[in-house]
Design goal:
Elements (H helix, E strand, L loop, with lengths): L1 H24 L2 H4 L11 H24 L5 H22 L6 H17 L4
Length: 120
């Protein structure tokens, strides 16, 4: 169970750590080529999403690695599922049909919740 968790959670946490840091430190002009939706959302909200992604990535990695507050790992995975449901909603309201990455992230985060419960 532990190996399965790290195989799934490691790349997922890496993705969200990168995406979150980018949203926190880059300007709107640098984000626009990667994320067309940044013009429709206030910059403080984009920064908040980035912070949530960084904290979620830490929540996937540190609790299982340290054994402290193990309930945070499945909570972070469930949080990522909810985050991507919101992301799909944002894409579809702008008539942007490119949501396959979001669907893949939902599936990966959902698959992470089951092995993450092994520490509870």
């Amino acid at each position: 169970m532990t190996i399965a968790y790290w195989i799934i959670a490691g790349p997922l946490a890496s993705f969200y750590l990168y995406a979150g840091v980018v949203k926190v430190i880059r300007s709107r002009d640098l984000l626009r080529p990667m994320m067309a939706w940044v013009d429709r959302i206030p910059l403080p909200a984009v920064r908040a999403l980035g912070t949530i992604e960084v904290l979620g990535a830490v929540g996937l990695l540190l609790p299982p690695a340290t054994g402290i507050a193990p309930w945070l790992a499945p909570a972070a995975a469930i949080g990522f599922v909810l985050l991507q449901i919101g992301a799909i909603t944002v894409h579809l309201t702008a008539e942007d049909r490119r949501v396959m990455l979001n669907v893949g992230l939902i599936a990966t985060a959902a698959a992470t919740t089951w092995p993450a419960t092994g520490w509870l």
